[in-house]
């Protein structure tokens, strides 16, 4: 008399080495007479091995600091307002990653809503002046700083090694010549740059770092159609200090988690190198 | 719940999350959420019970919440991670990369079961309680997930060929 048919579950248990010993011989007989099934199970065993081979190296990777910290009971819940603090230490990616994304999403939503409502309103009556920035320059720059400066692997789109390409590309996209100032005498070397969306079009971000890894970003917009020039202004967005100024159609904002006096020295150097 | 016990589970949580999500940053975010939620619910953990299963089930519930919540599609900035360690150095490197891709073609709930079996070597009953589903569902998801993975890796058209679990 034939024994009970082998079930699919038995076959999987066989693949995973959890089949009761009493059934093993039976399954092996079954596989011997069903080569297709034997082949299928071999493929499943190979999957187990391949998955282990692919993902087991993760077990030996160093645990990121933010996860290490969570091995102990957190003292308090992180308040949202602290999100910018993440940028100060490029390695501390954890705190801000979640909050800032929410904030950015919220910011984008506000920008979109404002843009849409502005556009809708435009159809009904001419707004008197169309110069108001949806997001103030220092705020835009600080958020861009917080988003990109902690990125260890890809802080920029085009690296300083291709500075010529970077300059050509950004100048073309912004529709006006832009060039990263040289800050080597102050100890800051160019890492590279990237293109970003501003309030109404492209803006550029250049990133620098010093020998300690401290990063500094210069945010350049060409969106200032009606604003008059300003002198240096200082703004603080969380732990990010921002010096900014408007020069013709250009808006510049220099952001870093360094103190005001050092940032002001760099801002002066940047200003001096720009054409007026 | 003491720190060293939690610490010991983090590498496994990361491995599973990485395999499940296919993206390093998203995986670590999920692990972080899991640990935060675990601490916030530490009172619900019964000392002496299986810490690993408890953490995995928290992670699973968070993942289910994530899937339910519509999200903007995002891309990993580190998509070449998978290729670096194995490219051209091992004879089976091609197969390892293939399986990373094939895994992404397996439906989420099947992938979860598949990975708990293959990586965590959890028993089927333990998976059932971790994911809070009947063991029959564990077996059918495992069966369909494995078959799906095989079909994708063999480059056959997918969709047909489902197998009924007896």
From TrEMBL, chain A:
Protein name: Anti-sigma factor
Lineage of the species this protein comes from: Bacteria, Pseudomonadati, Pseudomonadota, Betaproteobacteria, Rhodocyclales
Provenance organism: Candidatus Dechloromonas phosphorivorans
TrEMBL record, chain B:
Domain RNA polymerase sigma factor 70 region 4 type: 98-149
Gene Ontology MF terms: DNA binding; sigma factor activity
Domain PhyR sigma2 per the UniProt entry, residue ranges: 6-60
CDD domains noted in UniProt: Sigma70_r4 (cd06171)
Gene3D superfamilies noted in UniProt: 1.10.1740.10, Winged helix-like DNA-binding domain superfamily/Winged helix DNA-binding domain
Domain of life: Bacteria
Keywords on record: Sigma factor, Transcription, Transcription regulation
UniProt key word Transcription: yes
Family to which this protein belongs: Belongs to the sigma-70 factor family. ECF subfamily.
NCBIfam families for the chain: sigma70-ECF
Protein name: RNA polymerase sigma factor
The species this protein was found in: Candidatus Dechloromonas phosphorivorans
